[in-house]
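Sequence in, structure out. First:
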Amino acid sequence: MRAWPAAFAPLRGVRVIEVALLAPDALAMHLADLGAEVVKVEEPGTGDYVREVGAVKVDGVSALHRRWNRGKRSIALDLRTERGTEVFEDLVRASDAVVEGLRPGALARRGLGFARLQTVNAAIVVTSLSGYGQDGPYRELASHGVAYDAYAGFAPPTPGPRDWPTVPPHTDVGIHAAALFGALATVSAVLSARQSGTGAHLDISQADVAAWWNGPLLELDELRSRRPGQAEGVGPDLWRSVRYQYYGCSDGAFVLLMATEDKFWRRLCEGAGRRDLYERFPSRGASDHDTGNEELRAELVSLFSTRSQREWVEFFLTHDIPGAPVHVAGGVRSDPHFRSRAHWLDADAHGMAILGTPIRSAGGGPVDPAPAPRVGEHTRQILEDVLGYGPELCDRLFAEGVVAGS
């Protein structure tokens, strides 16, 4: 574990109430990683069933829960009861923000919509993170993670067994990026509310964010539809690109070459003792991929096979040439740069190795969050410490089934 001089916790003193399930949990995870106090409100009994989903489980508990709910405290509170909603409103009075990571209107159906919460705390910020947003034709469409990437064009059907259309292997965009947008929006709105005294209701859609992430392609299509024949270029064809391409190394690994500018192409050729390639295949314009040049591609395939991946990365560094090592699956874990930068949370405490936030500060390192909680693990602690309830009132709430846990 890397030793840091101090914890970088710029959100210390910010309290967030989270009512969320599954991937939307990641929004408040980011806030907790930056020092915010996050109180996770869960239904007594099963709570957030993210604990049970996902392909990887450790001691019977999902790795997704251990990752997304780290650093939070859990109160098991029945919002179906009048007394439960009163306790929730007391939490809102003592907090800066509420994260609603459920179907659109879920809190409103409990009488806890934004308008009601503003009467409780005029400066409260409510961030509603959902699949398709608070309005629009798909508002009520049930969905999970891949849906937003399929919607945005990131996961096109791929032929599978018997040529049946299959979900392709891909890195999720919508669920991860939406949590980051939601965290940024929440912090910004809290800052504004502390200055103005007026809160806000934020609407973050995982589908919207995935589409935004694919914005360059959508914008090109929109440009062409509005100005047929006037939009120049079609974007780089990376499949046929030569100077922006993967190349195999002598050790069986790969590197990515990105020498599309003339100065980088010249440095590669001269540094490798192949000035002849620079003279035979001069650059044409500011960014030349040499697309479709199979003769040059064959030359570079031969050239890159003469050194290992690490030797080529050192070559790129020495000669100031854009490039990168290429890793497959979890191979980046052995990369020296990753090892020097990665912040792993304590595997013994969290039940598994988990990567902490990548945010760094010159004055300190990231917060080491507490392990993801059990359902209602901190119920009494929250009632007493956050709301100031006395032992008798706490006992009564437990006895009446309004709250549960410990």
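Second:
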Amino acid sequence: MKSVELFAGAGGLALGVAFAGFTHEAVIEWDKWACDTIRENQLRQNPLVADWPLYEQDVRSFDFSSLHDIDLVAGGPPCQPFSLGGKHKAHSDKRDMFPTTIDVVRCLKPKAFLVENVKGLTRASFANYLQYTILQLSYPELTRYPNESWSEHFSRLEEEKTSGRVDGVTYDVVFRVVNAADYGIPQRRERVFIVGFRHDLGVRWSFPEPSHSLESLLYSQWVNGEYWERHKINGSKNYILSEKLKKNIEKMKCVTEKPSKKPWITVRDALQGIPEPHKGDSFYSNHIFQPGAKIYAGHTGSPLDLPAKTLKAGGHGVPGGENMLVMPDGSVRYFTVRESARLQTFPDTYVFHGSWTETMRQLGNAVPVALARLMAGSVAEKLLEAESRRLERIVQ
């Protein structure tokens, strides 16, 4: 199955899509540092990315006419217009790449698309724009007229939706806010995924069911103690707990049966086997101690025995002050680049190019590889089923 990767960044989503069985026909990213990361892995002959056709350029200037029969378009359009840390301009922000994404879908007519973005896209203030975007992805050939406002175009798309007509290439689109921790990622990272299948394929798809839960983690830590036994430590001794966590633990102690889901994966789980960072070189690439970590208002770091908070696209200060590890005794230090890569489920063989601040920006913007693989794998399964049905009809 053939795929095209838009706004690839350092390659998190692209890796997950490749792991799911897709072959990239184009991997497009305009940022030099992110491209350098992919290129460095290619120079090291990393088999994960060795054959990627990487294009360092703006997606808007890429010539898609040479690409045909694409099964999947995937990408995470720049999220600054919707991020909680941005100016919240949405469609009035020139960095909004959703229109470009829709243009690519219109051009390539892929069998499916997979789009990831920040949770802020679902805020009430963006509700109309989100619905507008979903309708454009559903009816990519129903384009905006010259001098037509976006709200007028929105109304015309709504009329098409309610008419029940299916003219030209259309897509069945769903979206959901997904917490990565619920799918076995060692990070509480909430993101929007938008998934669409071309209507003529007749695909019926829903998001994969969550496999992990906070309740299961607390049960394994504070009820049956399996978590501490596995790590060979006495975690309950002198452990500093927040009041909110204490209340949740008390609730779990009243549970009579072990929860059915797997426990959330913690920072301690994710960093198992990797040594404490030092100021010099390490056997693990990108694993160098970064000084200067401290807690201040709004930036309190990630406890060792919970999934990490969302990694932020920054180094020191706001928002990078949040990219810290909090030990059980309350002491803090910055996550190294390698540790951050573990939290984003990148393989240890995947190296990052640039300074600590630059690589942390790449990681903060990335999609967790394992989550991307899960989502893309679910899409791939349905595409294979649709192809099987098509071949059966031909035989008959």
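Remark: The domain at 212-217+256-365 is CATH 3.90.120.10 (DNA Methylase; Chain A, domain 2).
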